[in-house]
Amino acid sequence: DSQSSRRMVALSSALQITPQDLEDGVDLERLREATSEDQGQYAISQLDSRLADNVSIPIYQQAPGIDEGNLDTIQDIQINHFGTSKKWIEQNLKPASSIANICIMTGRGSSMAPTILDGSAIFIDVGATKFSGDHVYLLNAADNSTFIRRVVKLSSGNFMLIHDNDHFPHEEC
Predict the structure, then answer these.
(1) What burial class does residue 116 get, using C-beta atoms within 10 Å of its C-beta: 0-12 exposed, 13-18 middle, 19+ buried?
(2) DSSP label at 168?
(3) Which residues pair with 82 in a beta bridge?
(4) pLDDT tens for residues 65-86?
(5) What is the pTM of this model?
(6) By three-state DSSP, how is residue 79 classified?
(7) For residue 31, what pLDDT band results from cuts at 50, 70 and 90?
(8) Calpha distance 173→163 (Å, rounded)
(9) What residues contact 45, with CB distance under 8 A and at least 6 apart?
(10) Do residues 113 and 164 lie in contact, with contact meaning Cβ atoms separated by under 8 Å?
(11) DSSP H or E stretch at residue 160
């Protein structure tokens, strides 16, 4: 946002792009057209390898309620994106089924407090469709209502749906 250019060369060098790219943005089509086919493909592959670690995760308007909600009401309401790296996802969102299956929603409700507070951003792996250990899950009920609970497998083979807020009762299913 700064109008000053005194750090432009150092910044462009650190990002491995030209100062002009900082000003104009990187346009792959312009790069393809401005160079010979061989040079353009080489330059694009170099740029792609530098950008390959970048990931954009969609942010949806609101999550299904922590207490209860409906997934159909929010699926197509993307309001922004969160930019990060594959390395950050691998380190912080284990185990993710696929980077493409991750989205961010805002949780509503208090049943998972203090773990998830009302209004907290929640990373959700929509590709996690099977129980994979004791974790917090977004669950979709038969009536298509959704809710977020900690799920623990009991020795009986049943599951316990746990609210992290002690004011809410747990449910065995």
Answers:
(1) buried
(2) S
(3) 57
(4) 666 665 554 455 777 788 888 8
(5) 0.60
(6) strand
(7) very low
(8) 14
(9) none
(10) yes
(11) strand 159-162
